[in-house]
Specification:
heterodimer; A: mainly alpha; 8 helices; B: mainly alpha; two-stranded antiparallel sheet; two-stranded antiparallel ribbon; 24 helices; 4 strands; 68% helix; globular
Chain lengths: 220, 675
């Protein structure tokens, strides 16, 4: 049982990293949002599995929150936004997909190299979860850095937050209130960013953040 | 109730008084209540400290303040010595303030902070762990900063306060670093309390490198508070900006708290010393002494002059401490005891006479509204009692026998004369060199105070303010007379003070000076009879006898009739007050001789073009080497770097994110590679 529990947790976490990579090379916004929804669903499954093996019923609530909000509500809202902005067919030019993927692989290797020695003494499930969660966080950050479109930056941020939730649930004894407050703050951030997207759009007729830089008169 | 508990209670009572001061500051008579309470509390604390001068060390720990560390207090002879200095000075200042408070326009800017300042200084001296020490130190800085800013609308005070708070922060930063090094040596976070209690630091002896770093940091931290060159630049700005009783406290007492911090760390916590540790202390002490008094000589603002003279005295005390370090490192405990006694004695003396001098300056300021001595003069007729007190204090600070300043400086010179017995050639050469600087400084102090007293109190009034001045109130006079009497007593009977300092000196230097009170005729014998000895009482009696005798003789021979006649005016009619010697003209020879080298001073005759309607004049320029050589370049570098870094505030969002990302990855790489 124990070996199986570990294997399933490991597989789900690994799948999460895989979806992060999927996001890295998606240059269509709607496909990107689909990838985000898949990632959130995997996260929900992973958290639910953690609830089973840790026998911590409150994690079911976290899993439910992840499923309902992150896998359904937020992707729907994002789709609505891009449709209203009229950019759902737009193709974002991702500078050097291959290079980005290579960097992502490097980041995953780095995360494993950092976390595994540090957590040598702790439980195997938590070790793997935290290592992979750090990978997801770094990949989300990488996406925020490499993308120009504000919507894909938001997606990167959401994916980053998924990594944080994975790490939090992988460690035993994380209080529910912490997870709820993290989820809630991300939701608020999402709302604020959503409003800002429309404001930016109204002002500049685009959600390309380069326009903001041009507006400030920055030299590139 | 033990003395330590009583003193701790005094700190709490002072803090309570601060709260009371904040509450009632606007009411009538608030000043009398607050200063009266401060006077009573500090008088009790002085007595408690006096009683524990020779008592064994007493420690107490309370589970408040820092979690895991608590609050440690310790009353040992060294702390008792400095508590006497702090609380006696504070009692004098409080007594003075009972009268001086009437001049205060905005009491709510002073009353809450004054008792807090006193409490903080007491806490620093009693603290037995780094946290309590630094807490007290910062409270002391902040409370005194608030007092410096009490008259913030006057020109220059805001700048003085700014420079003061920057220097105080720098000093505290250095002290935090110094305590960090010591705590790491004392077990660090592996030990209980993180190695931050002084007992753990005392037990652990840091190595040469760690000790050297700690010494350098403490020299910066305590030196910047005390006014050690080249960190003295804030002192002539900030001390005069505060109300006069606070100036007296800052100059006379707060600098001593800084010296206490230096002694506590270097003599007590650092353990056995290396001989070369003495060299920077000696060198900086000597430079500070000479530079401080030269500054004082050039100064025409009375309170700034006194603040500059404080720098000089701090130099003397640090010189004594450096000598004590050198002797102690070479296992010469009796010589170390002599130097350390001289330093502590001078710290006590300086508290006495510098307080009186600032009280006198405050009296002049209250009576005339002026600090510029070029516009005063002739005040001896208008303010006879305070001028007498100022004279006694000036003589004491100029180290004239039989007053206390002479006794302590004489002891220091005795210690310098032993220095050829030191084995290291570096010290053998250096000590006489800084001794020469000290001798130069001692002579210049005399010139400086002849100038100050002469211009201020003698001659004819240089303006209407001086001509109509009134003697100050009786509380102020009582404070001045009381501290003057103590200065005279300490000068006549230095043996009593030296014996009182002996337990503290013994604990730090490993030996004490020979007991003085048993000697014949109360003669002061620092080393042995065959070397040298000094008897303040005898010299005092002799001077009194000769002085009174010759005065009586002259009066008898010359008759009592006073004749008034016209002055011989060299055939140049219309001698007015402006044709007297001025402060600038009295110091002009010294400015030409020494100022040209040290301050790059220059004089230029400003002759208007023919037909121009402005008067001709002489333009003097003086450059402060510390300011222009050290602080101005730092300021330029900081503003250059700030200008360059300013671009960081205007990066694009993606670049910000990229910077965060790159830094994160770099740190993770570091962990990954090293782990």
């Amino acid at each position: 049982m124990h070996g199986l529990a570990f294997d399933i947790a490991h597989m789900l976490a690994g799948f999460l990293v895989l979806t992060s990579f999927m996001m890295l090379y998606q240059d269509r916004l709607s496909a990107l949002i689909n990838a985000l929804a898949i990632q959130a669903a995997v996260l929900g499954a992973s958290v639910a599995w953690q609830a089973v093996i840790q026998e911590a019923p409150h994690l079911y609530i976290t899993a439910l929150l992840a499923l309902v909000f992150k896998a359904v509500v937020i992707p729907m809202a994002l789709r609505r936004i891009i449709r209203q902005l009229g950019i759902h067919r737009e193709i974002e030019t991702v500078g050097g997909t291959g290079l980005t993927m290579l960097a992502g692989i490097g980041l995953v290797a780095l995360a494993l190299q950092v976390v595994l020695p540090v957590t040598a003494g702790s439980d195997a499930v938590a070790r793997e979860d935290i290592a992979l969660a750090l990978s997801v966080v770094l990949l989300g950050l990488l996406m925020m850095v490499t993308r120009r479109n504000a919507v894909s930056q938001v997606v990167g941020f959401m994916s980053l937050e998924n990594g944080i939730v994975l790490a939090a649930t992988g460690a035993r004894g994380m209080p529910l209130v912490v997870e709820i407050s993290v989820a809630f703050s991300v939701l608020i951030a999402f709302i604020v960013v959503g409003i800002f997207l429309f404001r930016i759009r109204e002002r500049f007729d685009t959600v390309d953040v380069q326009a903001l830089d041009r507006f400030r008169g920055e030299r590139r | 109730m033990t003395a330590l508990a009583l003193l701790g209670g005094c700190i709490l009572a002072l803090l309570g008084t601060a709260g009371l001061g904040a509450l009632i500051a606007q009411r009538r008579g608030a000043g009398a209540r607050v200063y009266g309470l401060c006077l009573a509390i500090t008088a009790v604390a002085t007595l408690a400290a006096l009683a524990s001068l020779a008592a064994p060390a007493e420690v107490a720990a309370y589970p408040i303040f820092m979690p895991g560390l608590g609050l440690h207090l310790r009353l040992d002879p060294l702390a008792a010595v400095f508590l006497v200095i702090v609380d006696l000075g504070a009692a004098g200042a409080s007594l003075y303030a009972l009268g001086y408070a009437a001049h205060e326009k905005e009491p709510r800017r002073v009353l809450p902070f004054y008792p807090a300042f006193l409490a903080a200084m007491n806490l620093v001296v009693l603290a037995d762990d780094a946290y309590a020490f630094l807490f007290g130190w910062e409270l002391m800085s902040l409370a005194s900063w608030a007092l410096v800013m009490a008259h913030h609308r006057e020109a220059g005070n805001a700048r003085a306060g700014y420079i003061y708070i920057v220097m105080a922060s720098l000093g505290t930063l250095a002290l935090i670093g110094g305590f960090g090094v010591l705590a790491a040596g004392a077990g660090g976070f592996a030990s209980a309390g993180g190695g931050f209690d002084f007992a753990a630091m005392r037990a652990a002896h840091p190595g040469v490198a760690q000790g050297g770093i700690a010494l350098a940091l403490v020299l910066i931290g305590a030196g910047s508070k005390a006014g050690l060159a080249p960190l003295h630049v804030w002192l002539p700005l900030a001390h005069p900006a505060a109300p006069s009783h606070v100036s007296a406290l800052m100059s006379g007492v707060m600098t001593k708290v800084a010296i206490y911090g230096f002694i506590r760390v270097v003599f007590d916590l650092l353990g056995p010393a290396e001989w070369w540790w003495a060299m920077p202390v000696l060198l900086l002490g000597g430079i500070t002494a000479a530079l401080g008094v030269l500054h004082a000589l050039m100064e025409r603002d009375l309170k700034r002059l006194l603040a500059c003279s404080t720098i000089e005295n701090i130099g003397i005390i640090f010189l004594a401490l450096g000598l004590a370090l050198a002797f102690r490192a070479n296992a010469m405990p009796t010589a170390a005891a002599l130097a350390l006694t001289a330093g502590l004695f001078h710290a006590f003396n300086h508290m006495l006479f510098k307080s009186v001098l600032f009280f006198g300056a405050g009296a002049v300021l209250g009576a005339t509204g002026l600090r510029d001595i070029e516009r005063l003069g002739g005040l001896i007729h208008r303010m006879p009692v305070s001028s007498a007190a100022f004279l006694v204090a000036s003589m004491a600070i100029a180290a004239l026998p039989p007053l206390n300043g002479f006794a302590s400086e004489w002891l220091l010179f005795q210690a310098i004369f032993i220095s050829p017995e030191l084995p290291q050639w570096g010290l053998k050469i250096m000590v006489p060199a800084v001794g020469t600087l000290l001798a130069l400084a001692a002579a210049l102090v005399a010139a400086c105070f002849v100038r100050a007293y002469g211009i201020l109190y003698l001659g004819r009034p240089r303006g209407p303010e001086a001509a109509t001045a009134r003697e100050t109130d009786r509380y102020s006079l009582a404070a001045m007379i009381a501290l003057c009497a103590l200065a005279v007593l300490a000068g006549l009977l230095p043996g009593v003070v030296i014996d009182a300092l002996a337990p503290a000196v013994h604990a730090l230097a490993g030996a004490r000076m020979p007991a003085q009170s048993g000697g014949a005729w109360l003669t002061l014998v620092p080393i042995a009879d065959r070397n040298s000895s000094y008897n303040g009482l005898m010299i005092g009696l002799f001077l009194a006898l000769v002085g009174l005798g010759s005065a009586a003789l002259i009066h008898r021979l010359a008759g009592r009739r006073t004749r008034r006649a016209r002055l011989w005016d060299c055939g140049y009619p219309g001698l007015g007050p402006t044709s007297q010697y001025s402060a600038a003209s009295l110091s002009q020879p010294l400015r030409r001789v020494l100022g040209a080298v040290v301050f790059a001073s220059s004089e230029r005759v400003d002759m208007p073009d023919p037909g121009a309607l402005r008067p001709a004049g002489i333009v003097k320029t003086i450059h402060d080497p510390a300011w222009e050589g050290l602080f101005a370049p730092i300021g330029i570098a900081v503003s250059y770097a700030a200008g360059k870094l300013n671009h960081l505030q205007f990066m694009t969002i993606r670049r910000y994110l990229g910077a965060v990302f790159v830094l994160l990855v770099a740190l993770l790489l570091l962990v990954g590679v090293s782990g």
